[in-house]
UniProtKB/TrEMBL annotation:
InterPro entries: F-box-like_dom_sf, F-box_dom. Residues 188-213 have a biased composition (Basic and acidic residues). It holds the Pfam family F-box-like. Residues 183-213 are annotated as: Disordered. Transmembrane segments: none annotated. It comes from Bugula neritina. This is FBXO36. The lineage of its organism: Eukaryota, Metazoa, Spiralia, Lophotrochozoa, Bryozoa. Residues 101-147 form the F-box domain.
Length: 213
């Protein structure tokens, strides 16, 4: 029975793939390789990188297509993927063929953020180390605004402060630091107001004088 017979297409990308990866194989090969895992197959392709005048330049790209069950029994294809992409990629593909799909990164970002709102801060830090995708989500400003809002009321002053510093930095600031920052911001704005009003008055006075002549 297909390991993915009961899994919706929402786990696949637009082309119906569970996983796709392309890269140049390490020396001495340096061939360009691609591996694709669909709901039913593992497809491994390779393109020979040769000198221009070499006869091997006329070789067609190689391709192996196998169902998940056959791939799990095929040491040769597994070894080719191992040499091209490394052990971690091979292990990941083997897990997919066993039906162990990594559901979390396939969820909408909004759902992942809701999950992160219900875990400990230490767990968010750990999740952010998984890869670039999770690092981006775990440092998202909206996520930290929601975390901040779950602990205290968000005022207009805090909104303004967050525009300058970001909600994550504000979240880890203690109350005294936040109060001091708000006081400095209010003081700066208060100092700006008379200057701006003075400039506005001077501008209006200048226009009025010109209009009389």
């Amino acid at each position: 029975m297909d390991a993915y017979s009961d899994i919706s297409s929402r786990w696949t990308d637009e082309e119906g793939n569970l996983f796709e990866y392309s890269a140049q194989a390490p020396p001495p090969s340096k061939d360009f390789c691609q591996v694709v895992v669909t709901l039913s197959q593992v497809i491994f392709r390779w393109w020979k990188i040769t000198h221009r005048n070499s006869e091997s330049q006329r070789l067609r790209p190689g391709e192996i297509k196998e169902c998940h069950e056959d791939f799990l029994l095929d040491d040769r294809t597994q070894n080719m993927i191992l040499l091209a992409f490394g052990q971690s990629t091979l292990d990941y593909i083997i897990n997919l063929c066993h039906g162990h799909v990594d559901c979390l990164p396939r969820l909408p970002e909004s759902v992942i953020k809701k999950i992160l709102l219900n875990v400990e801060l230490e767990d968010i830090a750990r999740v952010s180390l998984l890869n670039k995708f999770f690092h981006k989500i775990c440092n998202d400003d909206d996520l930290w605004k929601s975390l901040f809002g779950s602990a205290t009321t968000i005022t207009d002053d805090l909104e303004d402060l967050a525009k300058d510093q970001g909600w994550k930095k504000l979240f880890f600031s203690n109350k005294l630091q936040i109060q001091m920052q708000l006081q400095r911001k209010r003081k700066t704005e208060a100092e700006k107001t008379p200057k701006e009003e003075g400039k506005k008055f001077a501008h209006n006075y200048h226009d009025e004088v010109l209009s009389k002549h």
